[in-house]
Target: Phosphoenolpyruvate carboxykinase [GTP]
Amino acid sequence: MTVIEQQILGLDGLPAGIDPSIAAWVGRIARLTDPERIVWCDGSMAERQRLISTLEKAGTLTPLNPELRPGSYLARSNPDDVARVESRTFICSEHEEDAGPTNNWMDPNRMRATLSELMAGAMRGRTMYVVPFSMGPVGSPLARYGVQVTDSPYVVLSMGTMTRMGADALRRITPGTPWVPAVHSVGAPLLPGQEDVPWPCNETKYIVHYPETREIWSYGSAYGGNAILAKKAFALRIASAIGQDEGWIAAHMLLLKVTNPDGRVFHVAAAFPSACGKTNFAMLQPTIPGWTVETLGDDIAWLAPGPDGRLRAINPEAGFFGVAPGTGRGTNPVAMDTLEHDVVFTNVALTDEGDVWWEGMTDEVPDHLTDWLGKDWTPDASTPAAHPNSRFTVAAAQCPTISDDWEDPAGVVVDAVIFGGRRATNVPLVSQARSWDHGMLMGATLASERTAAAEGTVGELRRDPFAMLPFSGVHMADHWKHWLEVGHAAEVAGGAPAVFQVNWFRKGADGRFLWPGFGENIHALKWILDRIDGTAEGADSPFGYVPADGEIDHAAAGVEDADWAALFAMDKDALTAEADDAAAFLDSYGGRVPAEIRAELAEMRARIDAL
Ligand code: GTP
Ligand code: SPV
Ligand code: MN
Model:
């Protein structure tokens, strides 16, 4: 036993001073799932090493060449366990109407019975790990706590990177401190003598949330968002329910700090749907001299009114679970630097030298690879070498642009809120909402082409309000109402953030992106900050204020005049159809849609009519 283990484990094998409610719950889940043994995780480096060697022995992790990628490993999942399963994700509120029309719902009593049956004996032959964690800096007034039990050492390893996991978090959960219990099993019990597989999982999957009692149960998958329950399940779905009661917002948002050439500092929170550019925007390397962007978070932000009434935000996570494909020196050098050592890669390709590769990592494609399925791969193959949703798991502290205030327990004041999605048409490169309420219309009607981050047809356009469609633990229209109210309170108290919309993904008739994106996105960000500072006039449009002529130096971004015009083209018929679609979308949420949102859509429609 390591020194830390001895310190935290009492004589009866339980951590000393532990909240009895945790011990009782762990005992209950152990009796139900019947694991071979129980390990309380302390979050130490020694424990991480033990987990890694367990995973190596099981064949889950393959060590990469230590000279090329020190401390790093490749995991290949079961080919049917590669993304979030939205069709198997449930919000089991007491009343169906509280889950809203866009969440799957089942009666909580029925779901409890279903899960009790599935979980009975589910951990047989396996170790149950008890994983205490803090979302947010341990001890921050904005932090919230949870305990996950899991029979997957891969999930424990991931939780150790993605959260502040272990003894410190456990010590903070004193009697009376609320904590969220999360039960996870891969659903693959082992009979005595039965040989294990490298990636145990089950065809049957359930990702279940009880928003009122703040509980999470997950069965059958070991993939990221389905299994690392601190992340989407807790920090978004359960947190959206907690935040609604406590007056703060759980958001699928990156968080960045930008400093202009005068040294003025702004903080920006931006909501883009899954695989739509949050990690890249958070790590942006400006192409305009004198500007700096630093990273606070790449996926989740919690926004709460501070003592001065202004909205403050923290990144509740401690790591990045990022999309690999498309990440390269040319697009995201900061991510490439972050990924130099101590990374777990999942479902990327393996080079003959024992390093990783994925589509977009280098311009030159290796002559031979082992693909994400473990098969030989050559450039003439008809399938990608890395799965389109292959990912890296890495500590945020390892990011060279991590901001010095990323762990500020008080959070940072948010100056701008940005919404963005993948839109080949209609939505301009950048625009500013006329008001907080107009900004909330932008958020509520946000749409994007589907990506590989979840099951479903890639490319299909769907509305993804606030980038939270798969992540709201409450009725989506109530989430909008909450944003409206929190913003109105901030406006009165000390000022709400300005709200913007961006679209890096508009395409020309020939199907090519009109905007270079990545580092050049600083041009849009600069205009956003110029608007906040009052140095850009803007011009009116149905989408709010857009850059006036000359306010963005598009030639410096390498964009020709015709493409620049196309990035802001407003086609009356197409926008009328867009407004009709948005109206039908709002109608699908029924009577709970806030009047402000409907009024803003009517206003937008009037502006489209006037085109
Ligand atoms: P999640 O982790 O799923 O929430 O994704 P994310 O929003 O963090 O997306 P990420 O930054 O990982 O980007 C997803 C994909 O979009 C990657 O393949 C990127 O290369 C690509 N991408 C990001 N930013 C841009 C951009 O400005 N332009 C273009 N064309 N592609 C981009
Ligand atoms: C997303 O899908 O938005 C992700 C990956 O960030 S997951 O953690 O699987 O949700
Ligand atoms: Mn995400």
Q: What stands out?
A: The chain has a mean pLDDT of 96. Residues 252, 274, 299 surround manganese (II) ion (ligand 3) (CB under 6 Å). Residues 102 and 430 are 28 Å apart (CA to CA). The first helix runs from residue 3 to 8.
